[in-house]
UniProtKB/TrEMBL annotation:
Organism: Methylobacterium aquaticum
PANTHER family, alphabetized: MEMBRANE TRANSPORTER PROTEIN-RELATED (PTHR30269:SF32), TRANSMEMBRANE PROTEIN YFCA (PTHR30269)
Family affiliation: Belongs to the 4-toluene sulfonate uptake permease (TSUP) (TC 2.A.102) family.
Keyword Transport in record: yes
Protein name per UniProt: Probable membrane transporter protein
Length: 250
């Protein structure tokens, strides 16, 4: 992170996690997506992913334990979570070892896909009979995408939204999925030698602004229109993803 180790670089990093925490506090997700997406403009996705480990883990455990149905969700979703872990650890070499613009472009495409799905507003439900075999498949694909880009949301978030969970269950299920993804990504990066001690210390520094942003976002959640904010977030994500995907050709 030599290019971002100066005062201006650290100011950008801390501001990024403040914004990412704010988004997560407001709509219940988006910290890794926003953080990795913005930081990938000035550093590799692997470096950005190493910075998000601590704030992502802490904020997602916070979100996971805030709901009342952890045991039931874990029993229902463990096949998906196991597949997320396996896929992420197995594919972490993609983000750790890739050179050139490829990782940032892949990250951009993932952000665009997530934004398009969200903006389309499609209402899909997973048939009960399909869940036993579809959950591990979705988990495995999510793990591969996470290992390649550092982003946890595709296709896990649309899939969890399609399970018909109520709002509290969905928020808690997202916390569970993101926690597993964070731990698995940290394990995968460490296995690839892409998570040195200095990166862990730097990630710890970003926890403060992330928690502050999350607290402000939670305070604001009941004072603004959540659908309006989410739409603005998705449009911003679409533009950011398009920029990252197209940057090598601009």
């Amino acid at each position: 992170m030599s290019s971002t180790s100066g005062p201006l670089g650290w100011a950008m990093i801390l501001a990024t996690f403040l914004v990412a925490g704010f988004v997560k506090g407001t709509i219940g997700l988006g910290l890794p997506t926003v953080a990795v997406g913005l930081l990938a403009i000035v550093m590799s996705p692997a470096q950005a992913a190493s910075l998000l480990i601590v704030p992502s883990f802490v904020t997602n455990v916070w979100q996971l334990l805030a709901g009342p149905r952890f045991g039931g969700l874990l029993r229902r979703l463990w096949p998906m979570m196991a597949a997320v872990a396996v896929g992420t650890v197995a594919s972490a070499g993609l983000i750790a070892g890739a050179q050139g613009p490829g990782p940032a472009s892949a990250l951009g495409l993932a952000l665009v896909a997530y934004a398009v799905v969200g903006l389309a507003g499609l209402s899909v439900r997973v048939p009960g009979g399909a869940e036993p075999w579809l959950s591990p498949l979705v988990g495995l694909v999510t793990g591969v995408v996470t290992g390649a880009t550092g982003v946890f949301v595709i296709p896990a978030v649309p899939y969890l939204q399609a399970l018909g969970l109520d709002r509290d269950q969905l928020i808690q299920a997202l916390g569970l999925s993101f926690t597993v993804s964070t731990v698995a990504l940290a394990a995968g990066l460490a296995r690839e030698g892409a998570l040195p001690l200095a990166a862990g210390a730097a990630s710890l520094v970003t926890l403060g602004p992330a928690l502050l942003g999350m607290a402000v976002g939670q305070w604001l959640r009941g004072r603004v229109s959540a659908p309006t904010f989410r739409r603005a977030f998705l449009i911003g994500l679409l533009l950011l993803g398009a920029h990252l995907a197209l940057r090598p050709w601009l």
